[in-house]
Amino acid sequence: MSERFLHENIFRGSVAMKQLAQTPVALCGVGAVGSNLAVNLARQGFSLIILIDRDRVEPHNLGTQVWTEAEVGLFKAECLRNRLFDDLGLEVEARPKGLDARNAKKLLRGAAIVVDSFDNSDSRNTVKTYSTDSGVPCLHVGLNADYAEVIWNEAYRVPSPGGQDVCDYPLARNLIMIAVSVASESLIRFITSGEKKNYTITLGDFAVKEYS
Length: 212
Prior knowledge:
By secondary structure, the chain is of the alpha/beta class. The chain is built from seven helices and eight strands, in the order H-H-E-H-E-H-E-H-E-H-E-E-H-E-E. It has an eight-stranded mixed sheet, sandwiched between helices. Helix 6 (121-134) links the parallel strand 4 (113-116) and strand 5 (138-144).
């Protein structure tokens, strides 16, 4: 086990760390949730990561996501791939494409687990349908204002489309980081034990509650 994961290895054990390193995970959307989650997973020992996002970095992304000013205008998936290599020497796959019903099977090929962190209902519905039809486990992570949810596909309901532009949503960085931590732990527990638990998170009272 690499020294860079020493503390995770002490905490989780070598068997668990091997499981994490050998499980391919596709992140659908690498914005506020997905970019931070990718960095978190990579620093916990995940090594087979697929990054799917068609968007480019915009100035308003800098406060809630992992980008630098120098990356404004570049594809998020490619920037994140480069970031993980520069930071950890980790080679991951970037797929800077829009995911829809026509290409979902192709873009998600090779993934043993899918994480939906998209910011729109159409894309979330595509991922949910793919997971249901293919049997590939999917964890949905979403947030708005002071509320977040981390829910496996079987219990997930796609939210209705909102009339507000996604750039105008209230979005607290601290809520993002809590949601990322809960999502990371949910993925790890599923990979190492087969356990699927769902959670809701509210920032105002720092509450993480099991959802059923």
